[in-house]
Amino acid sequence: MARVKKSSSVFDDANSLGQIIEHEKLRYRYKGVSGAFIGVTLLLAYFTLVPSYMKTVWPQIEAALTVPQLRYYSMPVVHTVVVLSLCILVNILYALRSPAIEKYKVNDEAWPWDKDMQAWRKLFWKTVWIVGINHLVLTPLMLLFMVYGYLGSTPEYRIDTATFPEPAEIAAQVLFIQFWDDFGTYVFHRLWHHKSVYFIHKLHHEYNVSTGIAAEYEHPIQYVISSIPAIIGPMILNEKLHVFTFWMWLGWKLTDTTEMHSGYEFPWSFTRVVPFSNFVAQHDYHHSHNIGAFAPYFVFWDTITGCNDQYFRHLEKEMAKKLPAGKEKVQ
Fold first, then answer.
1. CA–CA distance, 228 with 208 (Å, rounded to integer)
2. Which of 301, 295, 266, 300 is closest to 282 using CA atoms?
3. Beta bridge pairs of residue 158
4. What global pTM score does this model have?
């Protein structure tokens, strides 16, 4: 009788749907009850407490700003302030070197500044320079391009207090925008890895051990082109979208992107408690191995197209070291 070859991974035994299910089981085992509870609590707080407060101050904001300032020019300001705040926060975590934080480090590689401080300083200031150009020069130019209708139409987002969105509307539209942004980013990211244009994307991969500041470190050409997925959802919604909801999505997206590059896998992450979202380890794997794992948020794009196969094997091995079951295979 022929011997049946036993697979070394539950992911190898499953089709795409089965892989997604196994991934979800693994994700929530890692989070645990406490991590999932805290994550859901933070998620609810983000979509209820923040809008509740902003609704009280929105009349003053509406009165203080002109329509173009509120509808359009507020975007790069919110973007830059959020990115700067998140980079400061994650760098404080790095500086603390607290065992309570470092235990959530995704991989065993040394941080870039511990490997070679001189090389790290050079890369850091190069990153500040490139990100500065992208934010302070290219973002305003892209905004003007959009405002003056060169994309076919000028966005007419709501800005008034009378139609300030309720939490349910905000959450639904943020998820809608995130879905289209993630799909578009997946497509563009795969294209950036084609040998004919990889020389542009290669700049981002100078970080083979990812850190928070690497989140928006990309070639100006890539920065412009890769911004297209971010406006697909808003352009579809148009006047159905309140500008504050756009701000909420920016906060969500930038928090998630910074965390995705931070090198930490926090079980209580409120952006990663959403079903079918990825581990931070997925993008860390992409940086360290430079293969597959293209979609930044949802697990299904890469899984359906077979781009997660090698990552899943890597993930199962890494999670076996961290989960209570030790080296026992995940069932």
1. 25
2. 295
3. 242
4. 0.91
Name 264's bridge partners.
Answer: 105
Q: For the chain, what percentages of helix, strand and coil (3-state, to nearest 5) are there?
A: 70, 0, 30
Cα–Cα distances (Å) from 28 to 37, 271, 312, 322, in that order, read 11, 14, 15, 13
- pLDDT tens string 270-290: 999 999 999 999 999 999 999
Q: Give CA–CA dist 234/181, Å, rounded.
A: 10
Query: Using one digit for the tens of pLDDT, what is the confidence trace for 87-105?
Result: 999 999 999 999 999 999 9
Contacts of range 13-17, beta carbons closer than 8 Å, 24 or more positions apart: 16/300, 16/303, 16/304
The DSSP code sequence of 240-275 is GSBHHHHHHHHHHHHHHHHHHHHSB--TT-SSS-ST
DSSP 125: H
CA quadruple 229, 233, 234, 240: dihedral, nearest 10: 180
Lookup result for tokens 């360290």: 288
